[in-house]
Specification:
- The chain is 64% helix and 0% strand.
- It contains eight helices and no strands.
- α2 packs across α4, α4 packs parallel to α8 and α5 crosses α7.
- The longest helix has 30 residues.
- The chain starts with 5 loop residues before the first helix and ends with a helix.
Length: 286
């Protein structure tokens, strides 16, 4: 059963503090060992009768199931929208105070759309693509800003993002990383702690308590924090890969592929932004 927390449910968390595919506690109303306790997408043929017959669940029609092709197609649409928005912003918006304001506004709108989608029980392609478009505008402006000071930084950040994604997929497919409930819980605890610390750091910087960005400085400390952030991005990628794998194995509805694309896009944006900062920090030290 999915989490009541809509943000964590996107990553496949269960109400029993398990992870999709690794949850050993049966869902309410199902007998111990029932196939419905493990497969959140199974259709119960005894919904109006006895639940303890032990018969296999009715799989959804094959035509309505999520496939890897669906995930790839939706991800291409979503990431393509991000790229188009970024290219247009880079091309049409000069590096000025006004463009910075537009970037911040776009980031806020993208965040709101992402939260609305996270709290929805069903995926909305319009919300997801809207998020991607505004996120693209934000990325285009900040990429141009970084490029104007550190020439080539965005290109290096893209290559770095691709390298992290490829390496994470490789170790995941090779079985070197097993996405278990314990792995997911520990990783999420670290991620939440990281976000809280970064929020506190932002407040300290805003009120002048911490100087030069505090933990987010452009020095060695900032580089260490950036590397930690990229490692957390790789962790989120493993959860995305597991969510996709489980969704296909369990016969998830085809619309779930939009959620998979949404999750992948958010993770890749996270990694790209952190990689952009890391490239700038290393360029400063050259």
């Amino acid at each position: 059963m999915r989490s009541s927390n809509p943000v964590f449910s996107r990553r496949g968390f269960s109400r029993d503090n398990g992870y999709a595919g690794f949850n050993t506690a049966p869902q309410a109303g199902y007998a111990q060992g029932s196939p419905y306790a493990q497969n959140p997408y199974a259709q119960n043929p005894y919904a109006q009768g006895d639940l303890a017959h032990g018969a296999p669940p009715q799989a959804p029609p094959a035509a309505g199931r999520m496939t890897m092709d669906d995930v790839i197609t939706r991800s291409a649409f979503t990431l393509g929208t991000v790229v188009v928005g970024a290219v247009l912003a880079w091309t049409l918006l000069p590096v000025t105070t006004t463009s910075y304001g537009l970037a911040i506004g776009s980031a806020i709108i993208a965040f709101v759309l992402a939260m609305v989608q996270s709290f929805k029980r069903t995926p909305s392609p319009a919300l997801i693509l809207g998020y991607a478009a505004f996120e693209g505008v934000f990325l285009g402006v900040i990429s141009e800003m970084f490029n104007s000071r550190w020439s080539g930084a965005p290109f290096q950040a893209v290559l770095g993002t691709m390298a992290v994604t490829g390496a994470t997929l490789l170790v995941y497919k090779a079985g070197w990383i097993r996405v278990t409930a314990r792995y997911a819980r520990i990783g999420m605890a670290i991620a939440i702690a990281f976000v809280v610390v970064m929020a506190v750091n932002l407040l300290l910087v805003a009120f002048g308590v911490a100087e030069d960005g505090g933990l987010r400085s452009m020095g060695p400390l900032g580089a260490i924090v950036g590397i930690i952030a990229i490692l957390l991005g790789a962790f989120f990628l493993t959860l995305d890969f597991k969510q996709i794998q489980d969704g296909i194995s369990y016969g998830a509805p085809r619309d779930e592929s939009w959620l998979a694309a949404f999750g992948l896009t958010m993770t890749l944006v996270w990694i790209y932004i952190e990689m952009l900062r890391l490239v700038a920090i290393f360029s400063n030290n050259d």
